[in-house]
Specification:
This protein is an alpha+beta fold. About 20% of the residues lie in helices and about 30% in strands. The protein has one domain. The strands form three sheets. Strands 1, 2, 3, 6, 7 and 10 form a six-stranded mixed beta sheet that branches. It has a two-stranded antiparallel ribbon with strand order 4-5. The protein is globular, with a radius of gyration of 16 Å.
Length: about 180
C-alpha cells in the first residue's frame, strides 16, 4: 500500500544541546538512528509541532532518573530551536488512514498497552526516504500526549536541513529557562 501524504509545515520546535554547531543538521541521527531511521542510514531532524510536545520529550529523558530538569545548569540545559518548516506533503502517520497505509496500528503510537517500537517505524521511514518524501508527520509518542499532538521527522536530503531544494530555516534559539517552564 502506498504511503499517504498530509500537508504540514510552519513553525516547529527542535530540542537541542546548546553545544551543537548546527542543530538543524540531521547527520547525527543518521549515524545514531531514531524512531524513523535505523543507525548508519539517512539523516533526520526530529521536530516537535508544539511547545507541549517539546517539553514532554524533555521530561521523557528524565523518566526514572533521580534528578529532573530543575537540576540542570542553564549553560548545559537543552535550548529550543524554532524552525520554519516548508509547507509540503509529508508522510501521514497522523490520521487513522495514514497509520494503516504505513502498516502501523490505527492506535499509533500505542499498540495495546505498549508503545509501537522503533523496529516497526524504521521501515516506514525507509519507505518514505526511498519515495522521496520530505518527511514524516506523526502522532507524538511522548508520555501524556493526545492523538492531536504531533512530531515531524524532517528527512534531511542535504547538509544542514535541505530537502527537495527546500530548507529548514532557523528562526531563533531560546535558552532553556525561557522556553521550558510554562508561564
Amino acid at each position: 500500500m502506498k504511503l499517504r501524504r498530509i500537508r504540514r509545515g510552519g513553525e516547529h520546535y527542535r530540542v537541542a544541546d546548546p553545544s551543537w554547531k548546527n542543530p538543524l543538521d540531521g547527520r547525527f541521527a543518521g549515524r545514531r538512528g531514531g524512531r524513523w531511521n535505523p543507525p548508519d542510514s539517512f539523516p533526520v531532524v526530529y521536530l516537535n509541532a508544539s511547545l507541549e510536545v517539546a517539553r514532554a520529550n524533555v521530561l521523557r529523558r528524565f523518566a526514572g532518573q533521580p534528578f529532573g530538569p530543575e537540576d540542570l545548569d542553564s549553560e548545559e540545559a537543552p535550548v529550543l530551536v524554532i524552525a520554519e518548516v516548508p509547507r509540503d506533503r509529508y508522510v501521514d502517520v497522523v490520521t487513522d488512514e495514514g497509520c494503516e497505509a504505513a502498516g502501523l496500528p490505527v492506535t499509533y503510537p500505542r499498540d495495546g498497552d505498549a508503545l509501537v517500537g522503533w523496529d516497526r517505524c524504521q521501515p516506514v521511514g525507509q519507505r518514505a526516504w526511498d519515495e522521496g518524501a520530505p518527511g514524516i508527520a506523526g502522532r507524538s509518542a511522548a508520555p501524556g500526549m493526545a492523538p492531536e499532538d504531533e512530531e515531524l521527522a524532517w528527512l534531511d536530503r542535504g547538509t544542514g536541513g535541505t530537502t527537495s531544494g527546500k530548507r529548514l530555516r532557523k528562526v531563533r534559539i531560546e535558552p532553556f529557562e525561557e522556553w521550558f517552564w510554562p508561564g
